[in-house]
Amino acid sequence: MKKLVTSIALLLTFTSIALAQQADDLIGKYRLPNQLDVEIYKNGDQFDGKIIGLGSLDAEHQLDIKNPDEALRNEPLIGKVIIKNLRYDKSEKQWLDGSMYGPEKGLIFNLEVTEIRKNEIEVVGSKFFFWKTLVWQKL
Tell me: the pLDDT tens digits for 12-23? Predict the structure, then answer.
């Protein structure tokens, strides 16, 4: 009986370790609901993300035409860093305190990644008192 209890305890421990989110689990490529493809990568001890694909955007929308800084409106969207400064919080098992630039509206939002699942991640974007939870598909 003692061996059975020990075996079950070890199995539960290893299972929880295997399923626990680790900081680098966020690294990868994702398709956002607006059809942009983004690559998230480690930058020091934080995570950033850049646009790697524009999905179905037409040629007119391949430049950052809605950027609030007029000097940046002729920059291409491909390669543009739109996610900055996400940091992994070990106690929360989430990526917090990041920001994300939305080129469709030219706005910057607060960004958190709350959960990583097998084929997707769940993110929360917020601005002032408004927030929205979205699911990004892994590529």
Answer: 444 443 445 798
